[in-house]
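ESCALATION

Customer reports they have been waiting on this structure for their group meeting. Please prioritize. Original submission:
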Amino acid sequence: MRDLGAFPGGFRASASDVSADGSVIVGVAEVGWLDFRAFRWTPSGGMQNLGQLGLPMPHKSSWTISLAPGTK
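Update from on-call: job pushed to the front of the queue and completed.
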């Protein structure tokens, strides 16, 4: 068990998948009332908002990544 923390001003976070070696965790964090952001957690980077990692997305300014379900 590990406390993943929360985004600044956020309420809570929940993991949805973990890599086999436990070094990468993905999930969703609540940042406001019914406002969610997908995250990736690593030991070196901590909790990172997937929408701010430079992922290629069409019309990025109008998109929010709010779910990271994993790959199992």
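Sent to customer with the following note: Residues 12-62 form one domain.
Escalation resolved.
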